Amino acid sequence: MSSSSADSSADLYGRHRRVLPDWLALYYDEPIELTHGEGRHVWGADGTKYLDFFGGILTTMTAHALPEVTKAVAEQAGRIIHSSTLYLDRPMVELAERVAALSGIPDARVFFTTSGTEANDTALLLASVYRNSNAILAMRNSYHGRSFSAVGITGNRAWSPTSLTPLQTLYVHGGVRTRGPYAHLDDAEFVAACVADLEDLLGHGRPPAALIAEPVQGVGGFTSPPDGLYAAFREVLSARGVLWISDEVQTGWGRTGDHFWGWQAHAASGPPDMLTFAKGIGNGMSIGGVVARAEVMNCLDANSISTFGGSPVTMAAGLANLTYLLEHDLQGNARRVGGLLLERLRAACAGVACVREVRGRGLMLGIELCEPGTDRPSPERATAVLEAARAGGLLIGKGGGHSTSVLRIAPPLSLTVAEAEEGAAILERALQAV
Ligand SMILES: Cc1ncc(COP(=O)(O)O)c(C=O)c1O
């Protein structure tokens, strides 16, 4: 079944440590080697079955080993694996048509990449050229990827190892409602204070090309801005011609339940000028991309390609996955089962002293942990709960920016009610144990 016939997972870990970078994040004291999956479950090399509440960091959107996707990939691989953007690529055109129609962006053009990072890099390039400015506004606590430009605009120091960046970034308040200098204000006052900050920032330096924002901060710990904040920002920015880039890498494809895209929760401000996507669309195959108004997308006057972007095999996976997602209304399932799971988790956490907040939308739920009786984040407890959940047969994620004190729950969108109950019970026991 796996390379475990050659050596154990522990030996593999030793080899991993010798040949891969130290900064490559691995979960668990004894990291898990996954060999296969089915539906919402995965199996370790030692035969242990896990209920998967993190879906490969929100990439397994529909289900593990979904037969429709596997078949589409195998059939396309049997025809041609790669042709590059130099030749016509039918699956790419067909997926672009569907994504453009779904995006809500008028006169939309789609450019496919191989990751969320590359998608954001492309959006930043387009914005900079379109506006003739390399100044970018980004939200505090955000995460946008690991390229030089993307880490440069990532407002989460834990993920941004350099202050040297090709872009001039200005960080805007508002990503995190409950921490920072404005934590004591109510929502309306908070919005007003953040807008005043933004206006102040706009008074300095060169006019920014764009603001990039996640509708719900993902790596930052599944935090949503208060109602009205993004709409108020949009009003200030569009009056000055500053573009809005919605980073939908985590929030796209119905993940948040109520909406297909995260930006739709802030719909008063209309569709963004650009949106970037990745993760779930390929159900694990590497697809990323940018959707932009034609005028913005076509502003480049130099040739540009992505050798592997839009590759037929990944596009075939995307088409099959998207079809399944829509035909089975997995967004609706995320809303219903996610709502039940949220309720169940809130009940499980009531009275647990180290739980600061249980929050989220759809199947993007977070449990923030703190030192009991204080407001101090507790990354140690988050790690301990992660380990205890694993011991109980459940895989979850963690996040939360600098402190990594938020348990992140983001199962495949086909999660059943029974599985939600089962996972919540395991988590409840793990929290009690910690
Ligand atoms: C919101 C957001 N943007 C961009 C990225 C980068 O995507 P990738 O890891 O595919 O490069 C991530 C990855 O977690 C993300 O969460």
CATH superfamily of the largest domain: Type I PLP-dependent aspartate aminotransferase-like (Major domain)
What amount of the residues lies in strands?
Answer: 15-25%
Instruction: Label the overall shape.
Output: globular
Low-confidence parts, pLDDT < 50 over ≥5 residues?
none
Give the mean pLDDT: 93
Identify the strand order in the major beta sheet: 4-10-9-8-7-5-6
- State the secondary-structure class: alpha/beta
Q: What are the bound molecules?
A: pyridoxal-5'-phosphate
Order of helices and strands: HEEEHHHEHEHEHEHEEEHHHEEHEEEH
Distance between the termini: 34 Å
Number of strands: 15
* Fraction of residues in H or I helices: 25-40%
Give a structural overview.
The chain has 434 residues and is an alpha/beta fold. Helices cover 37% and strands 16% of the residues. It has helices at 9-19, 55-58, 67-79, 90-103, 116-131, 148-153, 187-202, 229-238, 294-297, 312-327, 330-349, 379-391, 417-433, and strands at 34-38, 41-44, 49-52, 108-113, 135-139, 168-172, 210-213, 243-247, 274-277, 288-293, 355-361, 364-369, 394-395, 397-399, 406-409. A hairpin with a 6-residue loop joins strand 14 and strand 15. The longest helix is centred in the last third of the chain and has 20 residues, at 330-349. The radius of gyration is 21 Å and the shape is globular. The model has no long low-confidence stretch (mean pLDDT 93). InterPro entries: Aminotrans_3, PyrdxlP-dep_Trfase, PyrdxlP-dep_Trfase_major, PyrdxlP-dep_Trfase_small. It comes from Streptomyces mesophilus. Homotetramer.
